[in-house]
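Suppose you are handed only these lines of text.
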Amino acid sequence: MSHRKHLPFTGLPELTPAQRLDAARAFRDRVATRRTIREFSDEAIDAEVIRACIEAAGQAPSGANMQPWHFEVIGDPDLKRQIRLAAEEEEREFYQGRASDEWLEALAPLGTDEDKPFLETAPWLIVIFEQRHGLDADGEKIRYYYTKESVGLAAGFLIAGLHEAGLATLTHTPSPMNFLNRILERPSHEKPFLLLVAGHPAADATVPDITRKHPAEYIKFRTAEDGS
Ligand code: IYR
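From them, the structure of the protein bound to 3-iodo-tyrosine can be written out as follows.
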């Protein structure tokens, strides 16, 4: 088996056990304050903030390191309007027919509907595309692996980064999202994965009164008697 040259790894900070626990808990406490926001202010945000957060997303692990993602960052009001109109058209069909009663019931506590004004109000829309395969210089397909998982991981990094930068996000997934290929002129092997709205919350933004699972519901440790 041949493989490319490996290099020594020195990337992690050296922490004492106490610093490590503090760091883990501080990160947990910061992400615990993240809430999905659906009412945005039109306050501008420096494009370099968005760029840095997307560069963080680009550090996510990916299947065979193929990095199967593309990010479109939309601040142009005309494009935002086109996206809003197309998304609302899909959402109208969803809320007025396509969605099952069970699904609509699950969404009721969130108070969502087919009106998506935030797609124009928020300063930035970030569209994450999943590249289902790559293309070499001759236009031949390059196989990619675990593309959905990889793009999901990158999206998680991005949302955490934007939160860290004090920005609100909304993970918006109008379905289907093919209109984003048309509006943003992306090739058909790129599938829209997520439309992420980023900005400051509106001054009067509210969030639904919902709770998160208690960690005991989703964590189970299996250790030996001595804890190892
Ligand atoms: N895409 C619709 C519906 C929707 C679906 C889920 I699952 C949500 O968590 C929230 C909304 C919309 O954006 O309104």
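What can we learn from it? DSSP finds eight helices and six strands in the chain. The chain has a mean pLDDT of 96.
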